[in-house]
Write a structure and sequence with these properties.
Layout (H helix, E strand, L loop, with lengths): L3 H11 L1 H12 L23 E6 L3 H6 L1 H10 L3 E7 L2 H11 L4 E4 L5 H11 L3 E5 L5 H9 L4 E6 L3 H8 L2 H9 L3 E4 L2 H10 L4 E3 L11 H14 L5 E7 L3 H9 L8 E6 L5 H10 L4 E3 L12 E3 L6 H7 L2 E4 L12 H5 L4 E3 L7 H10 L2 E3 L3 H12 L2 H16 L4 H14 L1
Parallel strand pairs: 1-2, 1-4, 2-3, 4-5, 5-6, 6-7, 8-9, 8-12, 9-11, 10-11, 12-13, 13-14
Amino acid sequence: MIKPRHIYTALLWLLLPYVFLHLFWRARKQPAYLRHIAERFGFYSIKSSAYIMWLHTVSVGETRAAASLVQRLQTAYPDHQILLTHTTPTGREASEQLYGDRVLRVYLPYDYPFAVRRFLRHFKPRVGVLLETEIWFNLIDGCHTEQVPLLLLNARLSEKSAAGYAHFTKLTQSGLSQLSAVSAQSAEDADRLMTLGARNVSVMGNLKYDIEPPPDMLARGQQLRTLLGAGRPVFLAASTRVGEEVLILEALKHINRPALLTVIVPRHPQRFDEVASLLTQHGIRFQRRSENSPIAADTQVVLGDSMGEMFAYYVACDIAYIGGSLLPLGGQNLIEACAVGKPVLIGPHTYNFTQASMLAIEHGAALRVQDTNDLADTLQKLFSQPDKLRLMGSAGFTFVNANRGATEHALAIIQREIRR
């Protein structure tokens, strides 16, 4: 009898030519996609004689969210080596900036059985941790075969994603049931995962709440504020996605705030030049953050074209809009802005951070805007209400501190598997 996973694998083989086309296509804007290609098929040059604890952090967000857990694991298991696997070059670069040579880092192999087998037999991890929504059926089956306990932690699953997995009931149920444990960000996420076939499910909260702003980033943020101009009102559009910058520029036309400076930080670095061209086309006077020079009085926009400085951008601003939410893209992480006490604005589309967005609004740390006109009106009002800004910033601290603790829960689950 043909198993659903065998059909899934056959489809992957049919897609193999597209895999290479995808790498070359992405490399047009990010040449780093052409580096370490062998790793994506299970061939690795690095190795460690120490016990391996493996965490899969797809890209920048997951890599940064894992920081508290990585630190606790290194303290609890000094004789172990942390291995981080990534999918994107930006995730790998974030790992280098955050952890340096304190961890090993490679790309997770594509979900072909031979590549998964090579990866597991090369590193021989004592435990594996998938973060958020990483469900790879051959990887899960490979860990089950090689007797590597595999955990899905900090798990989230939107209604839309759950409906997608539900179309492949047998495949999804088989994969999720082979996981040693699952711990979700919310009760809603846990219910969706159990409905799809996950076992040993708990609720841990969100690791992103446990992130600590690095002291050097706090200091850099103060320096950046000096460069931007201590007396100027600063609006930050953080982690913007394709199509959002145009909407933000449209909103700015309707804000009557003398000396307002807007900082736009695109989510993906390969879009820095694209956004620069957009600003030029609109006749916007702008400077690049990478120039690291004082901002001229007539500069309207600063293009945040640097990596690893998001905390600094948050520290340096007065109000932060969190990107990916004005358009139906699911939104980005608002917790970091709240963690440094900054008022937050989000759009109507935050399904990637449903619970965090709801809680931030309930605490008074964030406001939701519906469109560009609402964004402009809200900014106009907030900049004329300094007391309101201070209250929102203070509420951000309260909101984040009230939801800490996911790292301890995750650590307890990992320790339980290690003891087994």
